[in-house]
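Per your request, structure below.
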């Protein structure tokens, strides 16, 4: 007789399990590589787009300042000397970059979705064969809910990991490095200020006292 629900032990062999999962990806390794390259290209395009767009802001600023100087010098101007043709070219380039960024991201998601579904299909086939080879006492010591959870929930989690988490880890790393490099190229001094202020802001938000319930900032207590 069972005295209570059996405690499910958590997996302890992370890296061996990861290697086995990677082995299931080998038949589609070229597809995974293409998806990773597309994801990296999408991130790079989305990072450099604001840099290029900043050039348009600089052109507008320089044109406005040049026009004000000419007005103060006594010249009559009908319009400010802003290079709108160059601004239009920059706008077209930025739109193209964002379009390709979204397109690459969409294509890599389709590729990883197809690969993940094929991997999960093979995993379920192997699990089905394994369930047919285990002795009968295995079913006496494992609940049906546990077995069904392995077949359904765990497989769905693996599919979600392959579709999103795997690519997201790579894109997040590329985004962090790319944004850092972009900030340093714009102004290394402001970058250092940001790196100092961000931890201080997190500390203030984390350790700031929470006002009592029903008391809002700026209100007066009776």
């Amino acid at each position: 007789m069972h005295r209570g629900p059996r405690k499910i032990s958590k997996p302890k062999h992370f890296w061996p399990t990861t290697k086995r999962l990677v082995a299931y990806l080998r038949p589609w390794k070229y597809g995974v590589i293409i998806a990773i390259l597309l994801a990296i290209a999408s991130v790079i395009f989305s990072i450099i787009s604001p840099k290029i767009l900043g050039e348009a802001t600089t052109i507008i600023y320089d044109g406005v300042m040049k026009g004000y100087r000419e007005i103060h010098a006594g010249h009559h101007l009908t319009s400010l000397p802003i290079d709108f043709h160059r601004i239009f070219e920059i706008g077209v380039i930025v739109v193209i970059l964002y379009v390709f960024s979204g397109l690459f991201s969409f294509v890599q998601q389709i590729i990883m979705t197809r690969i993940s579904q094929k991997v999960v299909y093979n995993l379920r086939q192997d699990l089905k064969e394994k369930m047919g080879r285990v002795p009968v006492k295995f079913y006496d010591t494992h609940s049906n809910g546990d077995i069904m959870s392995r077949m359904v929930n765990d497989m769905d989690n693996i599919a979600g990991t392959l579709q999103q988490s795997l690519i997201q880890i790579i894109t997040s790393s590329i985004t962090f490095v790319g944004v850092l490099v972009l900030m340093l190229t714009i102004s290394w001094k402001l970058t250092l200020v940001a790196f100092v202020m961000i931890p201080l802001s997190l500390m203030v938000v984390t350790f700031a006292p929470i006002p009592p319930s029903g008391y809002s900032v700026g209100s007066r207590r009776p």
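Confidence is low (pLDDT under 50) at residues 1-6.

Regards,
D.
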